Each structure stands twice: as structure tokens, then as C-alpha cells.
Amino acid sequence: xxxxxxxxxxxxxxxxxxxxxxxxxxxxxxxxxxxxxxxxxxxxxxxxxxxxxxxxxxxxxxxxxxxxxxxxxxxxxxxxxxxxxxxxxxxxxxxxxxxxxxxxxxxxxxxxxxxxxxxxxxxxxxxxxxxxxxxxxxxxxxxxxxxxxxxxxxxxxxxxxxxxxxxxxxxxxxxxxxxxxxxxxxxxxxxxxxxxxxxxxxxxxxxxxxxxxxxxxxxxxxxxxxxxxxxxxxxxxxxxxxxxxxxxxxxxxxxxxxxxxxxxxxxxxxxxxxxxxxxxxxxxxxxxxxxxxxxxxxxxxxxxxxxxxxxxxxxxxxxxxxxxxxxxxxxxxxxxxxxxxxxxxxxxx
Length: 349
What we know:
Helix content is about 70%, strand content about 0%. By secondary structure, it is mainly α.
């Protein structure tokens, strides 16, 4: 089958995914309906982080998987791209940790002893930064599996890890009724507050990106759209079930999220679309700085005595945070261009 090379929709969806992450931290529909906000933000919006993981798998890890076992020189060259991505991501994480240390100190969220290691390697040192250690650990874990296992074995292990993670996330209060499972997850939660981390969450979506890239799959847009609608409906039903039954410890992981992400990625690959040049940079900066923008909007609302509109009206609050985030992200991206700071994205590692 012919491999697709039009990535315009993938690039553009990065920005949409970043704005979905902002929504997860601002609950834009809460002023109108808690149920609608849950379904739109905490079910449909959960496609954002898996999308970024699949992009990494597609552009960074797929060449390495293809090179494994085909000669040391070829394998070494492919690993250098992975290594470059890991170094840049680790650098971004280090800068982000430093950026949020003053906020963390002001909020008196200062861990002791093991708490620092837990945050740095699993939870993230600020609530949104968990993705960075997750993608780092997930890449290392998946690369190791690809090196020693067959694609079928990697698929089985990655899905098993995700299933274990989902049971400790959306189904935890159900599964923990079994004493043995409760003991297992209590052990997991000693080193990671949630199962949406680099061990249980990241490997499957990274691997899906690899499979789509190297499998040369093609799916017409119409079939991908139908599959996405069906799987998204299933995810909404799953989310509503686990929410109303009060099974959730968290709501990042659903079983139906897996097919939904497959069809979403296929749909984006099947669409001919011109890429927006700054989408990759803007999405990265929006992700990094949006919690600071939430603080800025709340501070401005207090100074202007407009908390009722700018904070308590959730949709207005969300739109203002997006506006401030995009403005600062644009300035940061332009400033980096002038300063010639290497770009952080999965296209070139």
C-alpha cells in the first residue's frame, strides 16, 4: 500500500489538542452543565494526550522499529533520532520544572524526600507536567521492548499494561473491592499517584503510532470518520457509566479510547490539508505555559473586580486563558526564532 505523506492535518490538530488540554484544566462547560462538561471535556477531550503520544510514535519511534535487526549501522542511526528527541524533551522538562518552582513554593506544594522522586519521574512537578516524564519513560520502555520482542509480543504487553492502568483509573473503585487487586494498586500508587504514566498509559499509544507508520495502513476518510463516531460514542457511554457508578479514581483512561485514537489518527492522515506553520511550536508553548495563564487571568479578574465574568463564568474563563496562552505562546515562538533555539517537535526529533 502507498504510504501517506500529507501531515497537514496532523500538524494542525496539535494546536487543537493543546487547547483541549487547557479545557481539561478549566472545565469550560461547567457553568452550563456538569454532565455536558464531563462528557465533552473529560471524555472527548481525553484524545489530546494520546494524540501527542501517537505523533511521537509515528515520527520518532517508527524509524527505529523499522531499523531494529537490519544492521547495527542502520539501527544506530535510527536510535540517534530517538536519543535526540529524548534529550530535547528532558531539557524541556528541566526548564518547565524551574519555571514552576516559584508557583509551587507560593502554593506550598513542596514534597519531602521520596515525594520529589515520585513527582519528577511519574507525577510531574506541576499538575500538567506529568506528560513529559511519561513520554520519556514510555519511549525508553517501548524501545527496549522493540529491541527484544516481536511486534505481536509488544502489542500484547502494551495493551496489557494499558488494561492494568485503566483498571486503576476509570475502574479503580470497582476493581479495588477485590483485596488482591486493591493491594496491587496500593503498591503502584506508592510510586505514582495515578496509572496514567509512562508505564501503563504511554506505551500503547506510542506503539499505535509506530504501527500506523510502519504498517502503511490506508483508510478512506469516510470509513475513518464512521469508526471514530462509533468508538467515540462507545467512549462517552463508558465514561458516563464509570462516572455514574462512581468507579473512577481518575478519568484519563478508557478502553474505548484505544479504537477512538486509531480512527482519529487515520482520519487526520486521510485528510488533505495545508499545515499551519506555527502549529507545532504554538501547541508546545500553550501546553507549557497555560497554568501560568490561568493564574494571570484570575489575578486580572481580581484586580478588575470581574471574577463573576472572568473566572466563575467557565466558558469565558476558558476562552480568556486560551487567548492569553496563545498570545504568550506566539511571542515565545517568535522570540525563539530570533534567538535560534532548536525546535522541539516529533517531526525532526
